[in-house]
Amino acid sequence: METSGNSQRKIVTGDAGYVLEDTYPNPLQDNPAYSVVKQYFVNADDTVAQKIVVHESSPRGTHFRRAGPRQRGGYRGFYSRNTIPLTPKVVNDIHKRGGTILGTSRGGHNTTKIVDSIQDRGINQVYVIGGDGTQKGASVIYEEIRRRGLKVSVAGIPKTIDNDIPVIDKSFGFDTAVEEAQRGINAAHVEAESFENGIGLVKLMGRNSGFIAMYATLASRDVDCCLIPESPFYLEGAGGLFEFIGKRLKENGHMVIVTAEGAGQELLSESLHSIDQQDASGNKLLQDVGLWLSQRIRDHFSRQKKMTINLKYIDPTYMIRAIPSIASDNVYCTLLAQSAVHGAMAGYTGFTVGPVNGRHAYIPFYRIIERQNKVVITDRMWARLLSSTNQPSFLSSKDIIEANKEEEPPTQLLEDNCSSDDKLDTKRIMC
Q1: Which of 318, 348, 400, 428 is the most exposed place for a label (fewest CB within 10 A)?
Q2: What gap in Å lies between CA 61 and CA 80, rounded to an integer?
Q3: What range(s) does the Phosphofructokinase domain occupy (predicted)?
């Protein structure tokens, strides 16, 4: 097995196209006070494959280091000054509450001040919890810590209801959001059924990724049309949304539409002639697709004068992330926390934890921040949704070609002469 390295990443290659994208190796020495219970530990050479569906002749592909306690010792506990101690008593009941006891914000990321504080306080383990933007911030902090040569481990923990973090199977909070979204969809369905030609329109979170809308739709079975950012749609003309609404109302007498907040933004820009603006974190400020779409639907059928509709608009966007997590997310959160601590104690840094094909792994930051996880509209899950709702795909052949281009490229084997950007040295954290 061959190891190549520079300051950016560590690549280990083996036979049959085996590729391991690693974080830093364990630098710890044996601890004589450490009691080994073999059945609880993962093998130091265990890795998790990124792709598990392969052909007979497929190369082994990209792997990540498996998460879990190692057989070799861990760091001693560390102490930091002027911090709030999160003792078991303090955090005992926080899983029963929504929101975050640590607080959250947009913007305010000053890498120099953050790392100065870490250095001044003598902190040697940093756990950064949040979504894709937070993980990018964690990567920047990690690079600055490395540049200064500090003996600090930086671990990312994915926490976003949008499920837009790549590589991992899903992000913490996603299941809870999908579960809570059912309440809004059920309310819309009840309202729509109660009126002649009733339409229930529900807007859910999802700026760039439509996973919440898609999975909530599949779970509900009451939704007639789901609109997401990844799948363009149009309103007027043959095969458009207005035509489908009219057809479904004639067939069933009511319908439910679910839209992600980022769906149809190009239509809103054309209609409202809006100027692109950004929030404190640099994210594009979205127009309210729910209000816009509800008004356009009302205007269309008002002009037609062939059908009187009753439209009810429900916006539970922030409600679905402000509630306590459900049981499956509580278990998932525990596993993420344990994996992150095991990784930091074993000497790894610059990684995000999460399940890859059902096994928890340590994934280098650069793999987490290189792209966003999005619904692939040429994939089977979106096809299952179209089959469930019987809605049109709204896609032209050009849209399908573009969607295929955006799919994740096949795993590329790393040859012996790989570029310096694809290698990593074997620096260690010694505390």
Answers
A1: 318
A2: 41
A3: 72-342
For residues 276 and 218, the answer to whether their CB atoms sit within 8 Å is no
Number of neighbours of residue 397 by Cβ within 10 angstroms:
7
CA–CA gap between residue 413 and residue 425 (Å, rounded): 19
Place of tokens 């990684």: 351
Question: Would the pLDDT of 35 be above 50?
Answer: no
pTM of the model as a whole:
0.75
Over residues 88-100, the mean pLDDT reads 79
Domains 2-171+325-375 and 175-324+378-405 share a fold: yes
Cα 240–chain centre separation: 30
- Which residues are designated catalytic? 162
- Domain 175-324+378-405, CATH number (from 3.40.50.150, 3.40.50.460, 3.40.50.11540, 3.40.630.10): 3.40.50.460
Give residue 354's identity as a one-letter amino acid code.
Answer: G
Question: In whole angstroms, what is the distance from residue 391 CA to residue 314 CA?
Answer: 21
Question: DSSP label at 301?
Answer: H
Q: Which three-class secondary structure state does DSSP give residue 244?
A: helix
Please determine, looking at this structure, whether the domain spanning 2-171+325-375 carries the CATH number 1.20.58.2140: no
Residues 6+ apart with CB under 8 A from 252: 224
- Burial category of 250 from C-beta neighbours within 10 Å (exposed 0-12, middle 13-18, buried 19 and up): exposed
Query: Could you tell me which residues are beta bridge partners of residue 354?
Result: 361
CB 201 within 8 A of CB 293: yes
For residues 28 and 342, what is the distance between their CA atoms, to the nearest angstrom? 13
Are β-strands 359-364 and 18-22 bridged in parallel, bridged antiparallel, or unpaired?
unpaired
Backbone angles phi, psi at 39, to 5 degrees: -70, -15
Question: Which residue's entry shows tokens 């009733």?
Answer: 198
The 10s digit of each residue's pLDDT in 339-392 is: 999 999 998 999 999 999 999 999 999 999 999 999 999 999 999 999 999 999
* Consecutive H or E run containing 310: strand 310-314
CA distance 424 to 418: 11
| 205, two tokens | 């979170």
pLDDT at 382: 94
b/e burial code for range 262-289 (CB count within 10 A of at least 16 → b)? bbbbebbeeeeeeeeeeeeeeeeebbeb
